[in-house]
Design goal:
Blueprint lengths: L1 E8 L5 E8 L8 E5 L10 H8 L4 E6 L15 H19 L5 E6 L1 H12 L7 E7 L10 H17 L1 E2 L10 E2 H13 L10 H4 L7 E6 L8 H9 L7 E5 L18 H6 L1 H15 L1
Parallel strand pairs: 3-4, 3-5, 5-6, 6-9, 9-10
Antiparallel strand pairs: 1-2, 2-4, 7-8
């Protein structure tokens, strides 16, 4: 594989890291954009990227500000920053500078929330996207029990007091500031999905008509529980969308948790091929 770092300049200074990953067999008309979620960077996408490169795709991975190789900034960033600014910058580069006609999107966790926000604010990009695959993505359905509600409430209070969540101390790739996580806490505690200016994202999700495959695990009981992912997918109100519930009861090798559903040997064996088939089917239907 060949990796090329493309630094996209931000208006307030610094850069956004966009990685172009190819092999000699990569085809110029088979492009996939991938992005991570909170507490992580492009490392969580390494395995699925290698798999897709092996099937002749050109992969583009972008890392959020304050993550991976992107610039570290002091301003307060949140999900809307990534959705309204970072995604817009990446899409403009891919579709205008690189003249890519069509792309598929793969996201993990909060990356899917940011993509949703982006496509609501920039609906013109929908026609450029053939399919979306969301791994472990939900925004307003984690408080599905009294225990989970209490856990989110306490996490919100503690991270507000501390100013951040020091995830690297417990094996995470990136720490997150409270301001970033504040929206996720509030959305899940209230069951609403609204922006800072009052925009109701949940109500506007049905405007996104790109076919979506939502992939979630039976062992993900807190960040993206199955019921929360089902609620999130249902809000799009698109009959073309599909759900993939990865659990032993559904014939999978394990009850996948939030990380293993994307980054594990079992996932590479049984989930990646389903995602590849989903992408290929959508492309065939468009041709």
């Amino acid at each position: 594989m060949q990796e090329e770092l493309i630094p996209l300049e931000l208006e307030n200074g610094g850069h956004l890291a966009l990685w172009k990953i190819t092999a000699s067999s990569s085809q110029h008309d088979k492009n996939i954009l991938l992005t991570h979620g909170t507490f992580s960077n492009r490392k969580v996408l390494n395995a699925i990227t290698q798999y897709l490169i092996g099937h002749h795709f050109t992969c583009w991975i972008f890392e959020w500000r304050n993550h991976g190789s992107s610039s570290r900034q002091e301003e307060e960033l949140d999900f809307e920053t990534i959705g309204k600014q970072d995604f817009q910058l990446v899409f403009a580069y891919l579709f205008t500078e690189c003249q890519i006609r069509k792309i598929d999107c793969i996201t993990h966790s909060g990356g899917g929330i940011c993509l949703t926000i982006a496509l609501i604010h920039y609906p013109q990009f929908q026609s450029k996207i053939s399919s979306i695959s969301l791994f472990g993505c939900q925004a307003f359905g984690a408080a599905n029990s009294k225990f989970n509600y209490a856990k989110i409430y306490c996490s919100n209070w503690l991270s507000k007091w501390y100013g951040s969540i020091p995830a690297t101390k417990i094996g995470g790739e990136e720490n997150e500031r409270y301001y970033m996580m504040k929206q996720w806490f509030e959305w899940n505690l209230t069951g609403e999905f609204k922006g800072k200016n009052g925009i109701n994202y949940k109500e506007k999700m049905k405007r996104i008509k790109v076919p979506i495959l939502s992939i979630y695990g039976g062992g993900d009981r807190f960040i993206a529980p199955p019921s929360g992912c089902q609620q999130y997918l249902s809000a799009f109100e698109n009959p073309l969308n599909k759900a993939l519930y990865c659990s032993k009861e559904n014939g999978f090798l394990e009850d996948y948790n939030h990380s293993r559903i994307l980054h594990s040997k079992n996932a590479s064996r049984e989930i990646y091929p389903i995602v590849l088939e989903w992408i290929q089917q959508r492309r065939e239907q468009e041709s």
